[in-house]
């Protein structure tokens, strides 16, 4: 099997310095571990100029589109890494699945309005990547064997030359953020969900509201400010066109596949961070001991065990971590971990087809939850609760749940916040949680505008 080639660069803990060189290029993408401030993520991955771009056709089923992704990987060709290297990517696909890609996998109603005009999925096929490994303190250009020598030389020059210093372009809001639901509508939706729960339709629904404002300027400037205010290990920036981008500050892994081993880390349970250290500790302790939040988390763990079981070997699905605390600048989270091993004949795309969208952002049971979400949320989610991911030619994959994320498109910026609703939820607390989760993001963009 042909081997990828490597060119070493000076290590950078902050990937924005490298990404500045390509951010105007077609298909520019940064998968960002949030360093140097965030601590959990290991790798940054940067690429641009994809050889192919793939989006679903009008009436194409989800499984047919995923099969086209398989075919694209075959077109690029098999490759391995030099033996001494442990890198996550050897050339392959990088892109997103929107939450509404789920409509191509399951039969769902179409009540919520689709006013974003975003493709249900978009992937580029990339033959190179700049990968920084923060454990080993290395930054390296990786070239798939199919990449022409002239293109390798161009990329080496591009990233080796001294950066040109320019004043950063501006980004500003031209209106205040407004929600797509008022308090009365939100309360009515929560009460309707609880009626569905009482009737036995579902156990839990993840309900969200969208905040939207008009904006002008460069979304990359917005992303840089956001990652400084809220560094997270599964962040990412994907340039969609000259003025549109997906900006993700996600703390949540969706699915990871490495050497056939599968991991998912659902988040369910949230408390706000507090300025006083003792009060903040009390907030975290309350979350860890909350029977409501633990029950919500356990419901989602059970759902994900079932989802993984569709593609994993019988008896391989395990829960090595239950109810762990993860803390971020704005919130504490309750997180668990579910693992498995892909069954013979199954690959990462089979796993995606059987597990998408993530159970932590739908509710349980999943399909009924998605039907209720479509009925009660006035607008479609678009990228929110979808996934930003890579899948390489070896079958290695990592993916996030697109939460704490924003879409800049058509002169507006959209951001979503939500949470899990159960039988004993209080609507005021749910409403406040949806705001707490995105307050740091909205506040950061408002500060940029003054």
From TrEMBL:
Residues 183-437 form the Chorismate-utilising enzyme C-terminal domain. Pfam families: Anth_synt_I_N, Chorismate_bind. Keywords: Transferase. Residues 14-137 form the Anthranilate synthase component I N-terminal domain. GO terms for molecular function: 4-amino-4-deoxychorismate synthase activity. It comes from Pseudomonas mangrovi. NCBIfam families: pabB (TIGR00553). This is aminodeoxychorismate synthase. Its EC number is 2.6.1.85. SUPFAM superfamilies: ADC synthase. One of its GO terms (biological process) is folic acid-containing compound biosynthetic process.
């Amino acid at each position: 099997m042909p081997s990828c080639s490597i060119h070493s660069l000076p290590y950078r803990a902050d990937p924005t310095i490298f990404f500045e060189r390509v951010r105007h290029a077609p298909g520019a993408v940064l998968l960002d571990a949030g360093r140097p401030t965030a601590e959990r993520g290991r790798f940054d991955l940067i690429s641009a100029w994809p050889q192919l771009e793939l989006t679903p056709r009008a009436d194409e089923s989800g499984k047919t589109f995923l099969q086209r992704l398989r075919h694209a990987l075959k077109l690029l060709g098999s490759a391995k890494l030099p033996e001494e290297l442990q890198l996550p990517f050897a050339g392959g696909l990088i892109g997103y699945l929107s939450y509404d890609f789920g409509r191509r996998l399951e039969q769902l109603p179409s009540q919520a309005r689709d006013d974003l005009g975003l493709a249900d999925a978009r992937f580029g096929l990339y033959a190179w990547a700049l990968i920084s490994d923060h454990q080993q303190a290395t930054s390296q250009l990786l070239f798939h064997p199919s990449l022409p020598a002239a293109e390798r030389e161009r990329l080496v020059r591009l990233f080796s030359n001294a950066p040109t210093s320019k004043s950063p372009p501006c980004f500003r809001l031209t209106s205040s953020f407004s929600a797509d639901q008022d308090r009365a509508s939100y309360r009515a939706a929560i009460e309707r969900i609880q009626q569905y729960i009482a009737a036995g339709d579902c156990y839990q629904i993840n309900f969200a509201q969208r905040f939207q404002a008009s904006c002008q300027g460069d979304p990359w400037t917005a992303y840089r400010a956001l990652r400084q205010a809220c560094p997270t290990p599964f962040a990412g920036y994907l340039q969609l066109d000259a003025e549109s981008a997906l900006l993700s500050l996600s703390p949540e892994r969706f699915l990871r596949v490495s050497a056939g081993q599968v991991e998912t880390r659902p988040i369910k349970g949230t408390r706000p961070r507090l300025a006083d250290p003792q009060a903040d500790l009390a907030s975290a302790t309350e979350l860890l001991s909350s029977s409501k939040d633990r029950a919500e988390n356990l419901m989602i763990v059970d759902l994900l065990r079932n989802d993984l079981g569709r593609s994993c070997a019988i008896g391989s699905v395990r829960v090595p971590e239950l109810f762990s605390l993860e803390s971020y600048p704005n919130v504490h989270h309750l997180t668990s971990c579910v693992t498995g091993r892909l069954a013979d004949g199954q690959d990462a795309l089979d796993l995606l087809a059987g597990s998408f969208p993530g159970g932590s952002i739908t509710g349980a049971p999943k399909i009924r939850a998605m039907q209720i979400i479509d009925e009660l949320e006035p607008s479609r989610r678009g990228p929110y609760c979808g996934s930003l991911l890579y899948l390489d030619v070896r079958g290695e994959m990592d993916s996030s749940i697109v939460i704490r994320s924003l879409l800049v498109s058509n002169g507006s910026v959209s951001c979503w916040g939500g949470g899990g609703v159960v039988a004993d939820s209080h609507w005021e607390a749910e409403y406040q949680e949806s705001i707490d989760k995105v307050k740091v993001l909205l506040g950061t963009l408002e500060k940029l505008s003054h």
